[in-house]
Design a protein that fits this description.
It is built from 19 helices and no strands. By secondary structure, it is an all-alpha fold. Helix 4 (46-74) runs antiparallel to helix 17, helix 12 runs parallel beside helix 14 and helix 13 runs parallel beside helix 15 (294-300). Residues 384-407 are annotated as: Disordered.
Length: 407
């Protein structure tokens, strides 16, 4: 745990984790909050709720790289203040919007969502050394697991006690508070030796969006597609067994296991490659469908959730390693888009597998999706590996070397 203490001792990093955890916890619950509002507040069907969720998710997928590009060019505070204002306007307006207007507002809110997760990842890359980065990204993945455990559950609990409109206001307030906190901290997004990146110029897309980056983004997509599908398969298994009431216990057990997996991964001196982690994640997921009781289900998916945080952490570390400082915002936005697309696609694909077979088919479909993404990432990266992009300091050293040779 010494490595984790050193990371938390980095000036400004612990406060950033605190405020970003608040924002990320609220952001993970936005889909659930909209669903509860449409179903309970507007008294409409779950199909209508799915439309609002799809509009929000589409905006999130498109907004990630766009906001990241603006951060690269205009700076962090400009984007944060704009997105905080947009979130305040939308969530205050939710209780008075008719359904059609809600769809447009949800898309705009997704497009202008506070970029808490991408900013945290950029700050980690800028504020830590290469030796600290693995453990730092492991903590970031644990933060993500905690937010997914807490956010939707709190929304469901509150929706049962107060009106969905009040829940929307509270959620919006949490997002605004988290985004404002990040803006006040204004964490550095470039290391000291990357401060002159503006003078070097923005690298062309062909220099960083190579096969190595495409392979990592493919594995990011496959990881979240698998995890999203597993969530649905767990619910289907409990429903078939008549044990839906035990879902909270299952989620709690799996959440603790996932956090433990992330912390152990961050302490490893030599972790396996990303494609190996994702391949193992897919393989251990397939037989989880053999469980037909909530107790055995907890045991069966332990391997899946234990490898979830390490795989996500490995993806984030690989993206950071392959990303030049001048496009760090855009690339982390692309990573978020790939993961959002995986989450969006995982549930319907696994849902089809469950409908045409049994809940075990859902686990098989999710696991095979992860194995396929791992194989694709492995084959693409090994066929034509991408070199590690030079830092600004290395570029300057190379420039001076070239000048010396000319002289």
């Amino acid at each position: 745990m010494t490595g984790y203490r050193q990371i938390l001792a980095v000036p400004g990093l612990a406060p950033l984790w605190g405020v970003s955890l608040l924002a990320r916890t609220a952001i993970t619950a936005v889909v659930m909050a909209l669903t509860m509002y449409v179903v309970l507040g507007l008294d409409m069907s779950y199909v209508a709720a799915g439309g609002a969720a799809a509009a929000l998710t589409t905006g999130l997928a498109l907004g990630g790289p766009l906001l990241g590009r603006v951060i690269d060019r205009r700076g962090l505070r400009t984007v944060l203040l704009t997105t905080v204002l947009a979130q305040a306007v939308f969530w205050l307006s939710v209780p008075i919007l008719p359904y059609t207007a809600l769809l447009g507002g949800a898309f705009a809110a997704g497009l202008l969502m506070v970029p808490a997760q991408p900013v945290t990842r950029q700050a980690i890359a800028a504020m830590t050394t290469a030796e600290q980065r693995r453990a730092a990204f492991a903590l970031e993945s644990v933060q993500g697991e905690l937010s997914y455990m807490v956010g939707p559950a709190v929304v469901i609990l509150c929706a049962a006690k107060v009106s969905p409109g009040v829940v929307a206001w509270g959620l919006g307030a949490a997002i605004v508070a988290g985004g404002t906190g990040i803006a006040l901290l204004n964490p550095p997004l470039r290391a000291e030796d990357e401060a002159d990146v503006g003078a070097v110029g923005r690298p062309p897309r062909r220099e960083w969006l190579g096969v190595g980056m495409i392979a990592v983004l493919t594995m990011a997509f496959g990881t979240t597609m698998l995890l999203s599908g597993v969530d649905l398969a767990i619910v289907a298994t409990l429903q078939e067994a008549g044990q839906v009431s035990w879902a909270a216990v299952v989620v709690a057990v799996l959440g603790v296991t996932s956090v433990a997996g992330g912390l152990i991964y961050g302490a490893l001196p030599r972790p396996p490659p990303t494609w190996v982690l994702l391949g193992l994640l897919g393989l251990v997921t397939i037989p989880a469908g053999l469980a037909h009781d909530w107790r055995w289900l907890c045991v069966a998916v332990v391997g899946t959730v234990f490898l979830a945080a390490p795989t996500l952490s490995s993806v984030a570390e690989a993206v950071s390693r392959l990303t030049p400082a001048g496009v760090r915002g855009e690339v982390t936005g692309l990573q978020s888009t790939a993961q959002s697309a995986g989450f969006a696609l995982g549930s319907p694909v696994v849902g089809v597998a469950i409908d045409v077979s049994v809940p075990a088919g859902g686990f098989a479909a999710a696991g095979l999706a992860g194995v396929a993404a791992a194989l694709a990432g492995c084959l693409v990266s090994r066929r034509c590996p991408s070199p590690q992009p030079p830092t600004s300091a290395r570029q300057e050293a190379e420039r001076r070397t070239d000048t010396t040779r000319v002289r």
